[in-house]
Amino acid sequence: MIALKITNIKQFMSKFLAGEDFDSFLLESASISTYNTFTIDGRQNRAFYTSEEWDDPEIRPYEFTAWKKIRPVCFDLIKGKHTPAAFHFVLHLIPEYTASILQKEDTAVTPDQVKAFVLNIKYDGTGLTLVTGTAFHTFLMDKTPDVLWDKTVRQFLSKKEISFEVLE
Fold first, then answer.
1. Which helix (H) or strand (E) segment is 10 a member of?
2. Phi, psi (deg, nearest 5) at residue 82
């Protein structure tokens, strides 16, 4: 787990909310404080779908909503003349990318042992911080996936030209 301070918040927000840079993520949850506090549960709502739709992986491939689908809603809540008072997003990397991250180094951890590679995005009114995390289905002694995810996030931000500092 690492914490990264985003040094150019405006640039980050443009890429996060108006661009496709984070479309390889799913939204677990969001809390956006503007004139109200809006809370979004990113879990798919069973009551919304027919039984056939719920079981169709083409319609509902994940437990959580794709960021690219919910991004416009979040953008509408944040845009305006005033800066948000705060927000917090919890994103999961789309599971199809787990294997490629684990293959970067020799580890006995398999993709089915990793529940999620997580990215927390938090703005407190003064600064924006990203915190990485890894969730497993069971306890594992091997911390290689954590290290690989931390490295992947730093490389991702650099590739997307998002400036950051590692917080100690």
1. helix 9-13
2. -100, 145
Measured on CA atoms in the order 156, 159, 161, 166, is the torsion positive or negative? positive
Residue ranges of the chain with per-residue pLDDT less than 70: none
Q: How far apart are the first and last CA of the chain?
A: 11
Contact of 129 with 122, CB cutoff 8 Å: yes
Q: Structural domain boundaries of the chain?
A: 3-162
- Ranges assigned E (strand) in the chain: 3-6, 25-33, 37-41, 65-66, 86-93, 114-123, 128-136, 164-167
Instruction: Count the neighbouring beta carbons within 10 Å of the beta carbon of residue 108.
Output: 10
Nearest to 130 by CA among 85, 69, 87: 87
Instruction: Give dist(CA 160, CA 22) in Å, integer.
Output: 10
Residue pair 20/75 in contact (Cβ under 8 Å)? The answer is no
pLDDT, one tens digit per residue, over 98-119 is 999 998 887 889 899 999 999 9
What is the spatial distance between Cα 131 and Cα 150, in angstroms, rounded to a whole number?
9
